[in-house]
Design goal:
Layout (H helix, E strand, L loop, with lengths): L2 H15 L5 H17 L7 H19 L4 E4 L5 H5 L4 E4 H8 L5 H10 L8 H11 L9 E4 L6 H12 L3 E4 L7 H22 L5 H25 L10 H11 L4 H14 L8 E7 L6 H7 L5 E6 L14 H10 L7 H15 L3 E7 L3 H17 L3 E6 L9 H20 L1
Parallel strand pairs: 1-2, 1-3, 3-4, 5-6, 5-7, 7-8
Helix pairs in contact: 1-2, 2-3, 3-11, 3-12, 5-7, 6-7, 7-8, 9-14, 10-12, 15-16
Length: 423
Amino acid sequence: MNVAERYIQYVREKTQAEPEKSWDKILLGFRANHFRTRFFPKRSLSKGYQKLENMMMGLVADSLANGDRYIWGNIFAPCELIHSFGLNMLSIECLSCYMTGYHLEDFFIDFAQSLGIAPTLCSYHKTFIGGVESGAVAAPSYAVTTSISCDGNLNTFRYLQKKNNVPFTLLDVPYTDDEASVDYLTGQLKELAASMEQHLGRKLDMERFRESMRIENETRQELKKFAKLAQKHYYPGDIIDQLYLMMGTHLLMGTKEFLEQVRFMNEDIQTYPEFHGKRILWVHLLPFYQESLKEYFNGSRQYQILASDIVMDYDGEMDAEDPFRSVAVKLLQNVFNGSYSHKAQMIGEMVDEWRPDAVIHFCHWGCKQASGGSPLLKEAMKERGIPMLILDGDGIDKRNSHDGQIKTRLEAFLEMIEEESAQ
């Protein structure tokens, strides 16, 4: 057991024994990991993914160390607006993932359920509630969530407001993107800005908000370029790098730092050799801890994740002259908003543009939309001649995932697509 593993074990034991005294120890580990990924990156990763990992470690460590500099959100909360207040945003889903680094997800989930939280609630939310309620995770002064995709968002944030006195704003995102819906959501975003000004004593920097729209447009074009380049080049990375990309597009979108990161990756990937394996489009969440998935995708020259719908979840242009309305349209047209037929259509457009060899849809336990809608997507892929695998499991709670079953189904699917291409 190396030094890092011993420290992880130490923090896990201390948190379980005295969670209310563990916050400084948790933060120290995050800071140490930020230092490690900067000066001692994982050598098997490409330089671009090394820098990406370090960027996300820094975002979490720096934000959590300064409670007055960040707010809570879910992954669809408008980070562009948050940045324009000079604040960072950390999503509760990502924070829960980071807690798994200490193997604390099971403790926090059990703690939440011991308080009466329903076992059927999403495990990301239970991990977060358990962390806060146990006293292990410190609370910021404000929170923002949306109604997109997850029906647990409102209840989780409402619970945290009641129990921990964290005021929050819910953005009620309609299913359709007609003019009335755009007007309705634009009004809510302006009310959010006013509420944050009142609660936080900060003013919204409108010029910074407009500039974030211009930067976001450039970043989105660079991301599309990266997906195109990933069709041609082998680019060594781990499956968790898709999580880091998702953090970038949802927590740092519209920032110069993330734009420069993606530009670097586009330059770096072109220094790598051609890729002759199978290209996969990933749909929904990534169980980054799953051993079988890591075995087949980490650094693989045979199978490479081309893109993920949760990273490329919007394909429109932002209008810098009307940023509130632009953000409203972005939320309304998000691949995760509305009916599943809308999602199937957008993923079909991704397939048409990037031509992956196969699609893998991971159905996270407790996510009703994913489980209920996946057959619609499979039918849409069948019409396009794209093989698709549906995997069931849990994105964060290892106890709800069976690696043996996932391994068996994954191996059979990959063998099938190899045989089909050989014919």
